[in-house]
Each structure stands twice: as C-alpha cells, then as structure tokens.
Amino acid sequence: MDNRLEPKERLLGIDGLRGLAVLWVLLEHAGRSWGLVPGTYAYEWVNRGGLGVTVFFGISGFVITRLLVRHHLEAGVNGLAAFWRARAVRLMPAFLVYLAGLWIMGWLGGPQVAPTDMAWSGCGAWNYRGLFRAAENGASTWFLGHTWSLSLEQQFYLGWPLVLLALGSGQRLRVVMVALILLSPAIRVASYFFQPETRGMIGMMIHTRLDAMLSGCLLALCESTWRSHPVAVRYAGLWVALAALFCVFLAPAFGQHYRGGYWLTIGFMLDSLLAILLVVWATIWSPNWLASGVLLWVGRISYSLYLWQQFFLGDTLITRALSWPMALAVAVGVGAASYYCVELPAQRWHAAHWGGSRLKPS
Question: Tens of pLDDT along 216-226?
C-alpha cells in the first residue's frame, strides 16, 4: 500500500485553494504595519487571516480523511504508522529549520525567543501554552504565535486516525461528527464563561475549533454522495459566491459590532461552512485560474511560506527596515527556498525509502 496520494489523485484546485488561504494570512500580517485603527471596518476586514487558517483546516480535514480511508486504514496499525511517519517527514524538517532560524536570530542579537516557548511549539502544544505559563520577560512570542494552528493540526493528525480506526467511517461516526459540529458554538461559549483564563485561546484550541476540522472530515466521508448530487455539481459556484460575500465582506461588520458574541456563536462556524464549500467547488469545478499558474505555485509552497512569513511580516523591526512590500517579497523568496531546499528533498527521501513499501494489515 502506497502511503501517498498517487499523482492522478492530486487535486490541483485544492493546491490553488491553499494559495488563496495563505495569501489571506499574508494580507493580515502585512496590514499590521499599515497603521489601521482597531475597531474600524477596514481594520476588521484586513484582520481576517483567521479565515485563511480556517480554510486550511477544512482542506486538512478533507485531504487527510480521504488519504486515510483510501490508503491507510485497511492496513490497521501499520497503516497508521506509515501515515504518521509521512506526516512527520512532510512537516518537521521545514519547521525545525524555521526554529533554527529563530535561534540564530537571537544569537546574532535580534529579538529573543524563549527556549521554553520553542519547546511548547516544537511539541505541538502552543495552542494550550497559555493555560500553564505567561510570556517570559524580554521574550517575543510573535515569531511563534502562528504555530498555534500547526499545533492544532498536529493534534488532529495524532487523534483522528485513531478515531477512524476504532469506529470506522460508517453512519455512526458521521452522526457523532454532525453532533460535535453543531455543539461547537456551545463549547466555545462554555469555555468563555467557565474558563475565563482561556478566552484569548478559544479560537486556537482543538476542542473549541473541532467544527473547522470535522467539517472537512465529514465532507470526505460523504464525498461519493455530494460528487454525484446535481445541486452540488450545478450550483457549487453560486453557494461559494454567496458564502464568500458574507464571510469576506459582511462578517467583519458583524465582528466589529458584536465582537466575541458573533465569533463564538456563529462566526467560526460560518467560516468553516465557507471552507468546505470552497473545497467542494475546487474539487468539482477546479477552474483554470485556481489550478494553474501563480496560485497553484503559492499553494505548493504554502506551508513553508506560512512558516517564514511570520519572520518578516507584522509590525516588526524587519518590516520597519524593509517596508512591507519588500518584506513580503523576501518572505515569499525564503518560503520558496524552504520548499525547494528542505521540503522537497525530505519528501523525495521519504518516497525513495518508504514510498514503494507494501504494508500488511495488522
């Protein structure tokens, strides 16, 4: 059993969608140096990088569940071991290089990142770090702040395959998933009132953002149904346009007015809905502008770009020295270098040593 998707199974539209998602993150972080006034509509509109991250979550839930069901679960524990090994090779080399870059920055006299913070991030627990400790004096948390989403995904990669292996992918699991998705707003509200110390992390913890991941997972488990459904096939573009209109242009106004009351109840859930609609649209329609050219390339390098943009964007000394357009260009260049010099060699090594192996069911 091959532990990678075959080339013919790669969905180019999904790569283009990753490109759109990371561009939204870049917009927010670049916008931090534009002097926008907090509380204004312009500030709220630019400050929507979280929508891009939610799209990443929806994509991950869909792609990983699809991969597990088609290639790994039939081999049982051995299949899961192959999946976890492939995820580690896919994610850890570029991440470790980024951490090394932060250490070198501090060693050269730049902003200091606390070793304990690197440990929290490296262990995939940054999104729960605030429950146990505060920032160290003089240490910057900006350069690791974005790793909350990587921690959430790593927790998902560890737990979700075990759930699938234990419960299967049948109707019982799907009912439980729908129930958890619908309960997610209540979980967020309960965390806000009964665990006030978690209020700054409600958008980051896996138990309060289950709907973002599970929506993509459910979409993958029901793929045979919606792929052949005439409404999905014919009107996917229309539904995406309507959802995008709301989430991109109207949601900032609701967030500006109602703040957490909107995001905790329906805001995050509507972003997740847009994410899965985009996945359906990119899978069924996959327009040429999304599945080729610049967006496809940006989608391919999106992981490394997401890692390194934090180093160069935001209201940092680097941005102030370079100006945000130059900082953005440097971030893209370094992200591309990380992809071609770190990610691709690691994946080729994995394919050469493990890609052709056949796993026996455990």
Answer: 999 999 998 88
Structure tokens at 243: 């959802």
Residue 171's Cβ-count burial label (10 Å; 0-12, 13-18, 19+) is exposed
In whole angstroms, give the CA distance from residue 337 to residue 87.
20
d(CA 227, CA 222) in angstroms, rounded, equals 9
Q: How far apart are CA 79 and CA 161, in angstroms?
A: 10
Q: 9-41 burial, b if ≥16 CB within 10 A, otherwise e? A: eebbbbbbbbbbbbbbbbbbbbbbbeebeeeee
Structure tokens at 327: 């900082």
The first and second tokens of residue 130, run together, are 């605030």
Q: What is the pTM assigned to this prediction?
A: 0.91
H-helix or E-strand spanning residue 77? helix 76-107
Decide if 76 contacts 362 (C-beta within 8 A).
Answer: yes
pLDDT tens for each residue of 247-261: 889 999 998 888 889
Per domain, the residue ranges of the chain are 7-132+139-355
Other beta carbons within 10 angstroms of residue 265's beta carbon come to 16
| Three-state DSSP string of 134-159 | CCCCCCCCHHHHCHHHHHHHHHHHHH
List, as one string, the DSSP characters of 195-224: -GGGGGGTTTSTTTSHHHHHHHHHHHHTHH
Token representation of residue 178: 């729908």
* C-alpha span between 176 and 336 (Å, rounded): 40
Alpha carbon separation from 256 to 26, 77, 189, 335 (Å, rounded): 21, 47, 18, 33
Query: How many residues in the chain?
Result: 362
User: Which among 243, 237, 67 has a CA at the least distance from the CA of 160?
Assistant: 67
**Torsion (CA) 137, 327, 95, 303 in degrees, nearest 10:** 130
